[in-house]
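Justification of computing resources. Each target in the renewal requires a structure prediction run like the one illustrated here; the chain below, 456 residues long, is used simply to show the kind of job we budget for.
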Amino acid sequence: MLNPDFLKSGQGPRLAFLETAAADKLAEMLVAFANTDGGMIVIGLKDDGEYASTIERDTLTKTLKEAEALCSPVVTTGSWEDVELEKGIVYAIRVPRSIELHALSDGRVLLRDSISNRPLGGQEILKLASAKSTGDYESQHVPGATKDDFSKKMVDEYLAKRAERTKRPYNGKIDDLLREIGAVDNAGRATVSGILLLSEYPQHWLPQSGIVFAKFVGKTPRGENNLAGYTRREELTGPLPRLVEATWNLVWSEMAVSAVVKGLEREEKYEYPQFAVREAIVNAICHRDYRIKGRRIEIRMYSDRLEVISPGGLPGFITIENIVDEHFSRNPRIVNGLFQWGYIEELGLGIDRMLEVMQDAGHAPPVFDARPYSFAVTLRNAREQASAPDWARNTNHRQARALQYIRENGSITNREYRTLCEGVSAETLRLDLVDMVERGILLKVGSKKGTYYILK
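Resulting structure tokens:
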């Protein structure tokens, strides 16, 4: 028997009351909850939560069968559970979030919206369908693409990584392997997962598969005079394994580093735990809905937080409430591919460890925001709580390396800084040094070619 305390909050996105056992009303509730995040339906209560009447269990069972017949496809539910109130017994039934798109026999598709059920229009139905697993999009063939578009370098790298992971090399035919991992379909045509993992430039066929990175000055996207407030914006492309690395390297290079100098030792603390950032990036790439065109994964770096936004709602039966305990993949072939590549350490345990490392580092837990057509992970930094001295706070990784170099050598020149940070433009490095001078971290000595920098 259920504890009635859950009724005190009243009707909401996950809880609905029905006064009588009417099949049509029950069917609407079943469809709305199954299409959204699931919930519980209680029969025998008025809209305000007051007791209405006790209904015979046999009547409820009959009504449920009639309601199920009005749903296409049938909504899976549990059995009726007793809820004992002072005035009598009411009954509750749990409706899980469904991996399918459900409609009523009259064609209506409903979503649970606050305390009511909202019918969807044509475009909304298509978007909702894209958030479901129906269709197995990653296994569909890509028009115009063939296995000849796979990069031999990527295939060879996959084979090497897989052999390293499984401890045994693959000795069969490559065509058989490509079919086994879903890179080609039974007709030998290149699939979405194959193109994303193994082609040199998947964005030729799937432009939505890239990533947009932006670093903002403050806590909002807007800068002065309502202009864009970002200081850096990058568009990243390439096969998914390369995308993971490129994105991680970019975020890591912009991550602030706090430092505490103890004697001759400098202890560095990154703005965010590295595993948490990497996991958020990998999850977005693995689990985004690649059917959604016109929107890429977005990574937004603000002064107080890092947001990773993935197109497509939570897949299958996953909800915010069960995201730690339950596991469901929209793109199992992509997940397995990146697992073999070594970007996923152990299947199904990433969220748990993300929570753990954030806590161990003294950060607030990640914030998960699930919407019908997107999912976002927000990591908040803890720089306000850092114990580092003012001169060493809020430096990016390049600046931290410069400070370490100065500690060991007494000073640094522009040329020495360029040697430390190969591949970074001279202008970016110049601005790094100017920034530390303006903040009172460094002192500029000399001029022109004789310029060098020391700790102030």
